[in-house]
């Protein structure tokens, strides 16, 4: 029986009866369970989807040793199913019945004093984690659950957390996370190093505190500082350079002190933020909030006057880019790129800060859960270095739907004046150099990847397994998820390709760590590492199709996702370069 398909009533090894499935991702699946010998006591059981337990043990070690705190989810048991030695690894945690932070704020409409106390407790929990050299790295409203309506918070899902000595989760510049909660300095690092897979951003406490500021902004206003559904390049440009609208402009009920706290958490420079959870907690101390404004609920029964429109992102972006272009720069850009960049800007002017419905896109690295039932959930972007699951083909669970807010202040429409054509031309030239988050927009021309050398030792590996330049063999993505012969959706980054059947001395099931890169027409796979029976070997392989490098993109997908057929050919090369005249 597949781990993600256990029916209600099924009993796992160890005596845990399944009640319902709460969430599923590429790495694992979460169930609400009860002990067979103690029915009515509910827990959350996290079960790995394959028998490699690396990431699960990493999280379990963290929760048992370094993340022990009253406001952090606790672990109570662990085991394997169906076999005690070779089965799928699982561990059992607290089940928190309450809603996530933003739903609690919307549905229960607490006072600002209650909201401040909730965040004070979260800040103290973060401070304890940071003092133990632990960083959450994926703090978001969905990962702060409330035990009760009074606002007692519980931090969950530390699967992406970092601590000293922990195995590496990612093979790209940024750790797992969610784009609209990443700090400005993390995005700037990615913009500089997105084509360098060996570069690693070192997260620090102020990254978690920035994300906490985004969570507080969302709870207090009903909106994110910058809408998650903005195009990737526009969203990242806003996070790195655009001041957010003051929370009190979206919700005039917000006390001035809280307004200042939120804006300080969202400062662009880390040294200007709170430097520790303890510092933030002291600022949120209850004795500081004595005015009547702190006793009022977040959202009133009356409809507030429309706030002043948010500053135009496009206008601020124009000013920023014009500053950069004041230095002499020679650029030659095709006219089509100019028009596309203008289109993006016009799209940005039409965007304001709509009421957020945080739908979860499993291909975007979010979590999957139905928070009408529960909120324990699993990451669906995983690293082949930590757990060799082809995560980009995980089945999709129902998306989160944000309930109707309690008289949430609407974000006003913005009607900025269109700038001159000369100004748009400058912006278009500058925008073509933006690289943000996991990929650049699909509608933009995406260059073929540059020439690169094979890793040292690749020739010896090829000789060891009896393969040579020009050899081709079958590979597949997603062999753990049923028949491999189907279309799948992938995104730029790293995934695992499997040797589909034995070829010379290459065994079937050998795992190929593959870097996925898009152009507008094709999906390229570069393979520098192969894993066989726990051993790692350098290789030099590429995806290949119909006498050409890469795979043809199939209908569907968007700027960050591509659809391909997941049974493919892999070719041995001597360099990541010209094949049939194509530098790639």
UniProtKB/TrEMBL annotation:
Gene3D superfamilies the UniProt entry points to: Phosphorylase Kinase, domain 1, Transferase(Phosphotransferase) domain 1
Domain of life: Bacteria
Domain Protein kinase residue range list: 16-290
Pfam families found in the cross-reference section: Pkinase
Residue numbers spanned by region Disordered: 398-418
Enzyme class name: transferase
UniProt: ATP binding residues: 46
EC number(s) per entry: 2.7.11.1
Entry keyword set: ATP-binding, Kinase, Nucleotide-binding, Serine/threonine-protein kinase, Transferase
SMART domains with a match to the protein in the record: S_TKc
GO MF entries: protein serine/threonine kinase activity
Keyword Ligase (UniProt): no
InterPro entries: Kinase-like_dom_sf, NEK_Ser/Thr_kinase, Prot_kinase_dom, Protein_kinase_ATP_BS
Family: Belongs to the protein kinase superfamily. NEK Ser/Thr protein kinase family. NIMA subfamily.
Protein name: non-specific serine/threonine protein kinase
Source organism per UniProt: Myxococcus fulvus
């Amino acid at each position: 029986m597949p781990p993600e398909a256990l029916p209600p009533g099924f009993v796992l090894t160890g005596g845990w009866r399944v009640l319902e499935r709460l969430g599923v991702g590429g790495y694992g699946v979460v169930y609400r369970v009860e002990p067979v010998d103690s029915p009515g006591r509910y827990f959350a059981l996290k079960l790995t989807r394959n028998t490699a337990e690396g990431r699960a043990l990493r999280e379990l070690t963290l929760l048992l040793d370094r993340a022990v705190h009253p406001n952090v989810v606790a672990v109570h048991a662990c085991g394997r199913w169906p076999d005690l030695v070779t089965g799928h690894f699982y561990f059992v945690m607290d089940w928190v019945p309450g809603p996530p932070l933003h739903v609690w704020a919307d549905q229960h409409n607490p006072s600002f004093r209650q909201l401040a106390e909730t965040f004070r407790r979260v800040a103290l929990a973060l401070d304890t984690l940071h003092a133990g050299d632990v960083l959450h790295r994926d703090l978001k409203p969905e990962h702060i659950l409330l035990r009760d309506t009074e606002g007692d918070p519980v931090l969950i899902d530390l699967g992406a957390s970092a601590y000293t000595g922990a195995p590496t989760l990612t093979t790209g510049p940024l750790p797992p996370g969610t784009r609209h909660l990443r700090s400005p300095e993390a995005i700037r690092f990615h913009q500089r190093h997105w084509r360098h897979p060996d570069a690693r951003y070192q997260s620090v406490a102020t990254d978690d505190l920035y994300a906490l500021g985004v969570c507080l902004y969302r709870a207090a206003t009903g909106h994110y500082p910058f809408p998650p559904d903005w195009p990737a390049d526009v969203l990242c440009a806003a996070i790195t350079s655009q001041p957010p609208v003051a929370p009190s402009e979206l919700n005039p009920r917000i006390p001035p002190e809280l307004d200042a706290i939120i804006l300080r958490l969202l400062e662009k420079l880390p040294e200007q933020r709170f430097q520790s959870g303890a510092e933030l907690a002291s600022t949120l101390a209850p004795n500081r909030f004595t005015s009547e404004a702190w006793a009022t609920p977040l959202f009133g029964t009356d409809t507030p006057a429309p706030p002043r429109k948010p500053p135009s992102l496009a206008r601020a972006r124009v000013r920023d880019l014009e500053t950069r272009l004041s230095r002499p720069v020679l650029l030659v850009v095709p006219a089509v790129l100019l028009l596309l960049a203008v289109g993006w800007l016009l799209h940005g002017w039409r965007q304001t800060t709509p009421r957020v419905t945080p739908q979860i896109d499993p291909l975007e690295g979010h979590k999957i859960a139905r928070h009408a039932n529960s909120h324990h959930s699993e990451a669906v972007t995983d690293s082949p270095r930590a757990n060799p699951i082809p995560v980009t083909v995980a089945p999709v669970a129902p998306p989160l739907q944000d309930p109707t807010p309690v008289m949430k202040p609407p974000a006003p429409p913005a009607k900025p004046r269109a700038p001159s054509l000369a100004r748009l031309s400058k912006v278009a030239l500058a925008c073509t150099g933006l690289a943000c988050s996991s990929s650049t927009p699909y509608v933009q021309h995406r260059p073929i990847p540059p020439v690169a050398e094979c890793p040292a030792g690749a020739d010896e590996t090829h000789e060891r397994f009896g393969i040579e330049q020009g050899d081709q063999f079958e590979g597949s993505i997603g062999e753990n998820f049923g028949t491999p012969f189907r279309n799948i959706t992938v995104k730029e980054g790293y995934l695992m390709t499997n040797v589909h059947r034995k070829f010379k001395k290459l065994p079937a099931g050998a795992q190929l760590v593959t870097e996925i890169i898009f152009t507008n027409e094709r999906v390229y796979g570069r393979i520098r590492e192969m894993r066989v029976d726990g051993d790692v070997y350098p290789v030099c392989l590429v995806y290949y199709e119909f006498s050409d490098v890469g795979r043809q993109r199939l209908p569907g997908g968007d700027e960050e996702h591509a659809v391909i057929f997941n049974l493919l050919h892999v070719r041995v090369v001597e360099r990541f370069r010209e094949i049939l005249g194509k530098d790639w």
